[in-house]
Amino acid sequence: MKIHEYQAKALLKNFSLPISKGTSLTDLKDVESAYKAAGTPVVAVKAQIHAGGRGKGGGVKIAKSLDEAQKYASQILGMNLVTHQTGPKGQKVRTLYIEAGTAIAKEMYLAVLLDRETSQLVIIAAGEGGMEIEELAHKSPEKIVRKQIDPLLGFRSFDGRLLGYALGLKETVHAELTTICQNLIRAYLALDASLVEINPLVLTADNHLVCLDAKMTIDDNGLYRHPEIEKLRDLYEEDALEMEAAKFGLNYVSLDGTVGCMVNGAGLAMATMDVIKLAGAEPANFLDVGGGATKEAVTEAFKIILKDTKVKAILVNIFGGIMKCDIIAAGILEAVKTTKLSLPLVVRLQGTRAPEGLKLLSESGLPIQTAETIGDAADKVVKAAGK
Amino acid sequence: MSILIDKNTKLIVQGIGKAGWFHAKQSIDYGTQVVGGVSPGKGGTFMEEDKYKVPVFNTVKDAVEKTGANATVIFVPPPFAADAILEAAFAGVKLLVAITEGIPVNDMIAVKAELKRRAADCLLIGPNCPGVVTIGECRIGIQPGSIGKRGVIGVLSRSGTLTYEAVDQVTRVGLGATTCVGIGGDPIHGADFIEILKRFKDDPETKGIIMIGEIGGSEEEAAAEWIQKNLKKPVVSFIAGATAPEGRRMGHAGAIVSGGKGTAKAKMEALRKAGVSVVDNPSNLGQMMKKVLENR
C-alpha cells in the first residue's frame, strides 16, 4: 500500500528523522495558516498524489511569499496532474502540503528497500538526488552506493563513514548521516515498509541533513499489525474494482484491454494474459480466484469483470486440482445465469474431472464456447472480442 | 529415486486446523506417512475422522521426539507462521514446507537469517507455495494428487496451478514426473531454483526438468547462469507475466516488475542464452519436453 508524502513524513518524524515543518490541506482557505506555520518566507507547495515525477509535471512550486503560495496553491489544488507515473489520464490533486523552505547546498538520494537476492535490507544512496534513481542507475550506475544490512549487526558507524565519503560529504555530517540511516531502517522494520525513499536527502547551507521528500510503501502482508496505517489509505488513489475484489479475497488488477479473464492461481493468471496477447488482443485484467477456486469466488469474479465496460469477451481458465472441474462448471453456469451474461464466454477447463465439466457446459444450452488448451481458448476469445 | 521426499518421509502438520486437516487426509490417501499434528494446547489428543487418526502434540519438539518426524508442513496463519518455521527448524526437522500465504516480508528476513546461522542443514520450501510431491510416494502440501503419473521429469515452479499444468502435460505426453516442487511466490522464500536444480541434477531418475518462473526478482537469471555451467540435463521453461504492467503486484507478493528489473523478457533471454528451451505458451511445456528429449 502506498501512502502520501505528508503521511510518510508524519510517520518518519516519530523516528527522529530530520523533517521540515509542514502542513497538509485540502481547502485553499487554509493556505495562509499553513504558510505561517511553516515559519519561513520561502515555502514549498507540493501536490500530494502517489505517483512520482510531481515536480516535472508542475505539481511542486517554490513560493517566496504568502501571495505566491496562494497563487501556486490555487493552481495546483484540483489540477489534473500528469506525470510519467500517472499515465496520460493523470491524477486529480486533492491534497496540498506546504512545507518550510530549505537552503540547499547538495541533493542526494537515500533509500531502504529489500534486496531479494540476499534476503536482507539494503541502503541505496547516491550523491545526486532529485532525479529518478532508475534514470541514474541507467546513466551512471557507478554513482550508486549499496550497503547490505545484516539483520543482526544493523547499520554501524563505520558504514555511515563509508557512505559519507562515498557521497562526498564532510566528516562533520557523517554522524548525522549514520543516525539517519539507522532511524530509516528502524522505521522500515517497525512500520512493515517495503520501501522508504528519501529523494532528495539534502545537505543544507548550514551543513545539516534534511529529508526533503519521503516516499513510503507498506507491505500489504504486514498491514494487519498497523491499523493506524491502514487508515491512511487514500481511496481516490485506488482502483474501485480492485478494492471491491479484495473484499471477496480475489486478486484483481485492472488493465487496459478488452478480454476479461478469470483464472485460478496467480502464475496461471499471468500466463493467460500472456497467451491472450500472443493471440492478438490485450487482457482487460488480471484476476486470480485462488488456487482452490470455489463456486462463490467464481460468481463474484464474474460480477467484477462485468463492471469493467471495456470488456468485450471473457475467458475463464481453470485448472482443477482438489476442486473438481465439474463443480467449477456448475459454478460458472450459475454465475452466467445470475449475472445475465450477454458477452461471449470461452471456458477452458483442465485437470480433475475436466471432461465432465466441459460436457456440463456444452449441454447447458448457454452460448459458452469450450476449449482444451490455453492457446485454443485464447484464439477463440480473441476472435469473439473482435466481433 | 526422487528428490527431497519419498515413501519413508515422516510428516507432521503444524497448524492442523481446517485446511491443515483437509490436506493431511489427502496426503494420507496419497500414501504419505502423516505421523502427527502440532497444535499448542491440544497435545495428547487425536485428530480423528472415518479411517483417519493422527496424534496431536503441543510442540514440534514433542512431535519429533515421539514420532521421529523428518518433515513438516506449515499451515499456521500468517501472524504466527514465521515463528512456526523457526520452531520446526530448531526442533531438528530437516525439511520445512510452508504453505501459508501472507507472511509479512520483514518476518521472513529474520527467519532466513536465523536459518542460515543456526540451522544451515535444514531446507525451507516456501512460504506461499503449493508444496512438494514425489509422484506415487509422498505428498506434502496442497497439490492435487490425482493429476500426475510417475515418470522422468522433475518440475519446479514459483506458481501452484502452473506446476499442475506442467505435471499434467508431461503425464499426457507419456513422460511422467519424478518430484514436483513449488518454491513459492513470496519475495523472500527458502529454497531457490538453484537448490532444487542441484538435487534434480543428482537424481538419476530425473531425465529432464521443467522450470516455471515469473516476473520479479532475479532468481531465474541466477538459475540460467547455474544451468549453463553445471547442468547437462535438458531444461524447458516458461516465464509468466510478459504482459504484466510495471509496478503492479500480480497476485503473488513477489511477482512485480520494479525499476525495469525482473521482467519476463530479461528472464527468457537469460534462460535461452543458457541453452534452456523457453516456450511462449505454457500449453507447449509437455510437447517441448518430449521433443527436446527425443532430439538428444
Task: Sum this structure up briefly.
Helices cover 35% and strands 26% of the residues of chain A.
What can you tell me about this protein's structure?
The complex is a heterodimer of chains A (387) and B (296). Chain A has helices spanning 5-13, 31-38, 66-76, 133-139, 157-166, 174-190, 227-230, 240-247, 266-278, 295-307, 325-338, 354-362, 374-386; strands spanning 2-3, 22-25, 43-47, 60-63, 80-81, 91-92, 96-100, 104-115, 120-126, 144-149, 193-204, 209-211, 215-218, 251-254, 259-263, 285-288, 313-320, 345-351, 368-371. Chain A has 387 residues and is an alpha+beta fold. In chain A, the strands form five sheets. In chain A, strands 1, 8, 9, 10, 11, 12 and 13 form a seven-stranded antiparallel β-sheet that branches. A four-stranded antiparallel β-sheet of chain A has the order 2-7-3-4. In chain A, strands 15-17-18-19 form a four-stranded parallel β-sheet, with helices on both faces. In chain A, β17 (313-320), α11 and β18 form a beta-alpha-beta unit. In chain A, α2 crosses α3, α10 (295-307) crosses α11 (325-338) and α11 (325-338) packs parallel to α12. The longest helix of chain A is centred in the middle third of the chain and has 17 residues, at 174-190. Chain A is elongated and about 80 Å long. Chain A starts with a strand and ends with a helix. By secondary structure, chain B is an alpha/beta fold. Chain B folds into two domains: 10-125, NAD(P)-binding Rossmann-like Domain (Rossmann fold); 147-295, Succinyl-CoA synthetase domains (Rossmann fold), CATH 3.40.50.261. Chain B has nine helices and 14 strands. In chain B, the strands form two sheets. Chain B has a seven-stranded mixed β-sheet, sandwiched between helices. The longest helix of chain B is centred in the middle third of the chain and has 14 residues, at 105-118. Chain B is globular. Chains A and B meet through α4, α9 and α13 of A and α4 and α5 of B.
